[in-house]
Write a structure and sequence with these properties.
Length: 247
């Protein structure tokens, strides 16, 4: 069994392991000799020895005018683990005592927006899956879309049966379209805002979320999901106002 990975799991750094194993293998050393043997500078070696002493893995003694450091019995690793567990339990108790105060601060700040970023066709598929899964759980199965004709060819390459799945789930969609083209599928209403082409963007409003999709300079789709009830409500109001006033 390899020793070094286990000592790393225990929590020792690479340099601590080097010094600890050196003491185990070669016996007592002064700081200077140990630094020379391990090629770790003297100041760092001394700091590491203090850390290993605190863990109970290294001891020391004086001979003449020099101080020598020696590895303790490796069985003391178990003692160090027990001490760590005890310390963690004490920290856990203290954390539990302050959690109510921390939660009070968290609640005072109100709900915080969650933003997730996606790239490429698979990323856009993930976004559309979230739209279907989220809206399918709502009592009113509907979402809203602002769409430009210049982006539509980039949306469904990884999810060609999206519309079929939407219809099978009986999910309705309202679309405000910018630019030419576009077809009306089942359970979809489309109104044209302008025949002029717009920048390649696609905005979806559903439940407490807003999606924004655009194209990179290499025509790769990228999008974000913003989960924020206030933002979604504002976007929904804006959509409904435009929808009512389109002739």
């Amino acid at each position: 069994m390899e020793v070094i990975p286990i000592l790393k799991q225990f929590g020792l750094s690479e340099k601590e392991i080097i010094i600890y194993l050196c003491l185990l293998e070669t016996g007592p050393h002064s700081v200077r000799n140990l630094a020379e043997k391990t090629k770790i500078n003297r100041g760092t070696t001394y700091d590491i020895l203090k850390s290993l002493i605190d863990l109970g893995l290294v001891g020391y003694y004086h001979k003449a005018t020099k101080q020598y450091f020696i590895a303790e019995d490796p069985a003391k690793l178990n003692n160090a683990i027990d001490q760590k567990l005890q310390n963690l339990n004490e920290v856990k108790e203290r954390i539990n005592q302050v959690i109510p105060s921390l939660k009070s601060l968290y609640d005072q700040a109100g709900e915080k927006p969650v933003v997730k970023y996606y790239e490429g066709h698979q990323g856009i598929k993930t976004i559309f899956n979230d739209v279907l899964e989220t809206v399918d759980q709502l009592s009113s199965k509907e979402y809203l879309v602002f769409s430009t004709s210049t982006i539509k060819d980039h949306l469904y390459k990884a999810f060609p049966n999206f519309t079929k799945q939407r219809i099978s789930k009986k999910i309705r969609v309202k679309v405000i379209a910018v630019g030419h083209g576009g077809t009306t599928a089942e359970l979809a209403e489309v109104k044209s805002l302008s025949p002029r082409e717009g920048s390649p963007t696609y905005i979806i409003v559903y439940h407490d979320k807003v999606v924004m999709i655009s194209l990179s300079s290499k025509d790769e789709p990228r999008g974000i999901i913003i989960e924020d009830p206030a933002l979604a409500a504002t976007q929904r109001q804006l959509f409904e106002y435009i929808w009512r006033n389109i002739r």
